[in-house]
Each structure stands twice: as C-alpha cells, then as structure tokens.
Amino acid sequence: MKTIELKNVSKIYKNGVKALDNVSLTVKQGEFIAVMGQSGSGKSTLLQVAGLLDNCTSGQVIINRNDVSSLNKNLLADVRMKSLGFVFQSFHLNSHLRAYENIMVPMLINPEYKTKSEMKERALHLAETVGLSNRIDHYPGELSGGEQQRVAIARALSNNPDFILADEPTGNLDSKNEIAIFDELKRLSTSGKGVLVVSHNDAVKDYADRILIMKDGVLEQ
Ligand code: ADP
Ligand code: ADP
Asked: Where are the transmembrane segments (predicted)?
C-alpha cells in the first residue's frame, strides 16, 4: 500500500508564524481526502509540506515508506517526480506551450521516456482521458478555465504518480467546471490514486471519503 504519512509535523515560517501545529495525517492509495478550513489556517502549507515543495520544522514526512528527511536533493526530486502530481488554483500552465506540450513538460525530466514522440503519444492519451482531445493544439490563453485545469490535471498525471495533491483546484472556476474537476479527481481516486485536496469549496464534501478541518494550524480529525 502506497501512503503519504505526516507524523507530528509542525511548520514555523521565518517570520515566526506557526502554520502547522503537530499535524498527523495518512493519505492512502484510492482515497480522496479533503482538507477544509478558513483562509490562513495552514491548508496550503500542509499541501506544500506533504508534497515536498517545502520542508517542515519538526516531525516526519514519509512517502511510500521513505522518510524524506533522510533523502538528498536528487532523491527528493526523484520521489516528487515519480510519486506526486500537483494541481494549483491558478493552473500554472506555460502560456507559450500548446496544451499537449504543457502535459509533456514533466516527462522531459523522466528518464523513462526516451523520445519526444513517445511523450507526445502519452500526452495525447492523457488529454483524451480528461476529455480534452479536441483542444490539444490550443494555447492556454485560448482555453476556458475549466479546460486549462483539465490540462493541469493531465500534466499532473504525466509521470503516473501515486498521489495527486490539489490546492484550491476549483478556486478560479464556475460551478459547472467545479463539478467537472471534482468528478475528475474522484475518478482518479477510484482508479487507485491517493487524492489530497485543499479547498474551501463546500462542493468537495460530496466527493471526499474523509473531510478534515484545519484550524489555526491544527488538523481536526
Ligand atoms: P491557507 O492555505 O489555509 O490559506 P496558508 O498555509 O497559506 O493557509 O497560511 C498559513 C499561515 O502561514 C498564514 O498565517 C500565512 O500568513 C502564513 N504563511 C504562509 N506562507 C508563508 C510564508 N511563505 N512566510 C511566512 N508566513 C507564511
Ligand atoms: P467550459 O465549459 O470548458 O468552461 P465554456 O463554456 O466556458 O467552456 O467555454 C466554451 C469555449 O469558449 C471554450 O471551449 C473556449 O474555447 C472558449 N472560452 C471560454 N472561456 C474562455 C477564455 N477565458 N479565454 C479564451 N477562450 C475561452
């Protein structure tokens, strides 16, 4: 069983703000976990620390049984590439690349893919799975918000990670697209990926297997 485990994790920023206060959490494959809570409660920090985008001040982060504090920079990058996919509120697409090229970006650093045509083939397949086949040659500026977020999800899937971490993935979307994105994330969790979504959108409650509330850096279970 693949897992992300946080054990007694605290995060104090340089300015003295304690954004995470003794947080423990396990995300398993096939599980959709939603973390809700007010703005400033520490949700983004939780995702950044669980996703190895930032380090914690104390406690342990264990991904697929690797205690990440024991890994050097290269191994950390390797775990991040192979095990984790990220989706952000503001999509974070490269506006100079077409949809399928955006999806290919993470594959460029994955030695598993040898040729551009192999990467493109996989990108097209992923675009199809998120319902974007007819938009693959478009640039982000030519796509709606919902379409851009589907490109971002396909990109998060490009290296076939065990986990998808999403930070307010519907924050910039209308309610129709909200549903489409949560549906897509749910599909991924039922297909065996672990999904950790940070959101203050009530709609996520209809999708999550577990809903956790973050309050002043404390995760209420
Ligand atoms: P949320 O995602 O729930 O809005 P955040 O994790 O972004 O909460 O923020 C938690 C707390 O940490 C807030 O008080 C915020 O101001 C503070 N914070 C977030 N990022 C930083 C940072 N890089 N440096 C200092 N303080 C930060
Ligand atoms: P979706 O249901 O995917 O959000 P919309 O109904 O919002 O799609 O938009 C339909 C079409 O209009 C999209 O396929 C897209 O090509 C175009 N479109 C919508 N919003 C934008 C935008 N902000 N910029 C460029 N094109 C857009």
From this structure: none
Distances (CA, A) of 40 to 44, 103, 196, 217: 9, 31, 18, 9
Instruction: Name the residue ranges covered by the structural domains of the chain.
Output: 28-41+72-211
Distance in angstroms (rounded) separating the CA atoms of residues 211 and 220: 9
The model's pTM is 0.89
> How many A from CA of 140 to the centre of ligand 2?
11
Ligand 1 geometric centre to CA of 121 (Å): 39
Encode pLDDT of 92-149 as tens digits. 999 999 999 999 999 999 999 999 999 999 999 999 999 999 999 999 999 999 999 9
- Between CA 29 and CA 36 the distance in angstroms is 20
